[in-house]
């Protein structure tokens, strides 16, 4: 069985004491590649360094909406430079977070738009963080351009209502540990509506640890629990679901 964790944050200090062991456990669970995603400029720089250090890691660089107020011309120039590295496979995670509102909404929208334009300019896929901002996220994406087959809605949480629109736009949709949460029936129903050729798996480590490990630090090995739940919902053998989602990850990230 081959799995790819399409979204993790192994550059976080949560893993400073046992990062190598975390990677070994991932390999033992069948995880052959992990995409490590930046949340700010320093995290993006760390992600690139880790991907250069470990063959099983790739990097995505970008500024999370929580840090949107840091996005300026210098930061964008730095991201552009980082993206020239062969280990960098996308721009993210970028988007809008109107749940926490850690940055003013107008600033989030400006930072999001600038990074979308950067991704277009350098022809890399984008990884979207969108929380309590579905309509605004989709409107801004429409304004900037066509991201057909070049966009991942990470950690999908909006329920089934938006799936049809995302599929119409030819976006990929990634699901994580939330699939296993007792109170996340709407997320499970959403997954059922996603075509197999647009489905991705992730952990968002160290967050959103799946059952039965909930309450502990998340890690890429646990993408197997996400895969098991997804296979059950899609009524497919685990190995087949794993192969399909791995092929999807390789396609969008050009691995």
TrEMBL record:
Protein name stated in the entry: TatD DNase family protein
InterPro entries linked: DNase_TatD-rel_CS, Metal_Hydrolase, TatD-like, TatD/YcfH-like
CDD domains: TatD_DNAse
Binding site for a divalent metal cation 2: 129, 154
Molecular function terms, GO-annotated: DNA nuclease activity; hydrolase activity, acting on ester bonds; metal ion binding
Keywords: Hydrolase, Metal-binding
Alphabetical list of Pfam families matching this protein: TatD_DNase (PF01026)
Residues engaged in binding a divalent metal cation 1: 7, 9, 93, 204
A GO term from the CC aspect: cytosol
Organism annotation: Halanaerobium salsuginis
Phylogenetic placement of the source organism: Bacteria, Bacillati, Bacillota, Clostridia, Halanaerobiales
């Amino acid at each position: 069985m081959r799995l790819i964790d399409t979204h993790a944050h192994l550059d976080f200090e949560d893993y400073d004491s046992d990062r190598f062991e975390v990677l070994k456990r991932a390999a033992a669970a069948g995880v052959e590649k992990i995409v490590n995603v930046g949340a700010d400029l320093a995290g993006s720089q760390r992600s690139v360094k880790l991907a250069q250090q470990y063959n099983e890691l790739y990097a995505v660089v970008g500024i999370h909406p929580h840090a949107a107020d840091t996005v300026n011309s210098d930061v964008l120039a730095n991201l552009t430079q980082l993206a020239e590295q062969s280990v960098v496979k996308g721009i993210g995670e970028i988007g809008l977070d109107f749940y926490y509102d850690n940055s003013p909404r107008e600033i989030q929208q400006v930072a999001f738009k600038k990074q979308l334009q950067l991704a277009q300019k350098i022809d890399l896929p984008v990884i979207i963080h969108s929380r309590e901002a579905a309509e605004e996220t989709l409107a801004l994406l429409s304004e900037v351009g066509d991201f057909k087959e070049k966009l991942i809605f990470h950690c999908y949480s909006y329920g089934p209502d938006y799936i049809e629109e995302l599929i119409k736009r030819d976006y990929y949709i990634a699901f994580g540990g939330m699939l296993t949460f007792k109170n996340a029936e709407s997320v499970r129903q959403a997954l059922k509506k996603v075509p197999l050729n647009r489905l991705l798996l992730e952990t968002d480590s160290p967050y959103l640890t799946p059952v039965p490990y909930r309450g502990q630090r998340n890690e890429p090995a646990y993408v197997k629990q996400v895969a098991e739940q997804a296979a059950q919902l899609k009524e497919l053998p685990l190995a087949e679901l794993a192969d399909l989602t791995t092929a999807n990850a390789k396609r969008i990230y050009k691995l």
